[in-house]
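[Solved] Which block belongs to which protein?

Original post:
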Amino acid sequence: MDRQENLTSVFWAHYRGAAGDGATGDLQSTLERLTTEGREAWPEVFLPSVTFVRHLAERMSPEGSVQQVLEKLHTADLYLACACAQQNPKALAAFDASYLRQTPRFIAHINSSPSFADEVTQCLREKTLVPSAEGSARIAEYAGLGTLLSWVRIAAVRMAIDLARKSRPPQKERELSAVEQILKANASPEMACISVQYRDLLNDAIRTALSSLTDEQRNLLRLYYLHGMSMEQIAGLFGVEHRATIKRRLDKLQDRLLEAIKGAVRNRLQLSSMEFRSLVNVLLSQLDLAGSAL
């Protein structure tokens, strides 16, 4: 480590929070140690200390103690990501070998064909590692808060979903709409009396409700309803330890959607609360989410 570099000054110059949190000497030692950890993890990849510390500081959350946040970073992953953002050839090769090579495993639940995996891998490589016309490559957005493997996994799944959606031929008009299928399968006299004229009303209400969600919330629903992933699988993608956390999120989202839809359609359909909830639950699972707000 080149100790004449004042890494503390570099850090405070690029940090978004207030400067001065922590003793200068302690922070200098921490930054030197983190840089060393990155170099030891990727010995074939060299980054100047100043470059890495600037990259680290620019992506750190200004909330909380600087020293505490630094200790929680996935330093080796952030070091490699920084080098990739700098278009370091050895870093790009290491990223390809260690992370992109795992793309087929990440997307097997969507499409396990080798040709599809190759297409996703290439698109992911270009989108992640190639600088855009506006500036840096997407890899520069990685902030080291979670593992780089999880970051790549989520990006691969999103890419696979997008490619699968684009390659899907235009959907022909179904013989029975989602609502008609529900009516046909439901023995309730009240449900059987629902006119098919409400099909568009229900689907439009669901799409409107979905459009109000965040990208992460829509992605969660897409993985569960459209791609049939288990809560355990989704928990792994989101870096969550327990499936119960995903279940709570899904339950909360479902309740939110039900409330948003209820005012638009319940009175016109004249359903009981239980029948209304049952109808919307099935619609959520059968709705063509690929063509909706998701």
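(Second protein starts here: sequence line, then its structure tokens.)
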Amino acid sequence: MTEPALITDTLDIEPLAKGECHRFWVTLTEDAAGRPIRIPVMVARGHEDGPIIGVTAAIHGNELNGIPTIHRLFRDLEPAVLRGTLVAVPLVNLPGYLEQRRVFTDGYDLNRVMPGREDSSPSRIYAHRFMTRIVRSLQYLVDLHTASFGRVNSLYVRADMRHETTAAMARLISPQIIVHNEGTDGTLRSAAEDLGIHAITVEVGDPQRFQRGLIRSSRLGIQALLAHLGMLPEIPGDSQQGGDTVECSHSYWISSDCGGILQVFAEVAARVERGQRLATLTNLFGDVIREFLAPEDAIVVGATSNPVAQTGARIVHLGIEGNIR
């Protein structure tokens, strides 16, 4: 029988037994009924000291592919041969998950309010305690996401490719696409980097569903990273598969300048040429009123799957190939 998870206010790795896996419910805040809001934390402590790496998922409550990625990572892990410590949070935004919403209970995006504040709004207090009670103990971080509602994503990584360590982390994931991104204020990645933690964001496909192939690929990528850090003697299980990763110096979205019914033709992870048709917009009478063309050669990082498009709706996320030196 599985041992019950321990309840704690703060994750403390040092006293944990080596060569074993540990489970916790870490209390962050309370709901309006005074009930504690606790998030699950899984810790694999190796047989000897080494790097401390964290893997987080579902900071947006509807982004679920990272949950089974973590579960399968631990299923294949043998703590007795692990060097260092793996800390995993399969569900960061528990309230959002329960409501099947991207945002926190107060309507704010947790990935825009990091590192939070100890005396502010519900989302910012939750973010602050997550950072201080769990994240601050890490040396490396892999933050797992998916596209938002109404969009689809390739398997891609956002990382600051100017820095040798984060660039190496991104490449070891072996995604379809890497997009150089220096980080945005308020994200978990930028807040972690401000603490001196090497961090990358991994986008694992689409929201509110499990995609077995992408889950497998992201899990293998994390195992490759663990092996690179000397935490595993070799990559367990299957070897990483897939084609060559496309590295992009930057990316941007094509947006609609009017409203209507959207049809996107561009496929994620596909290359498009300048002038190629990406999407069309029709009015409610069925007339095509806009045709959106690729402004330059690019690769499709993500796209909108929702046909209902108002003015300003995002259509296609394009990556522009090029290395950062």
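Accepted answer:
You had them paired correctly. Confirming on the second one: The chain has six helices and 18 strands.
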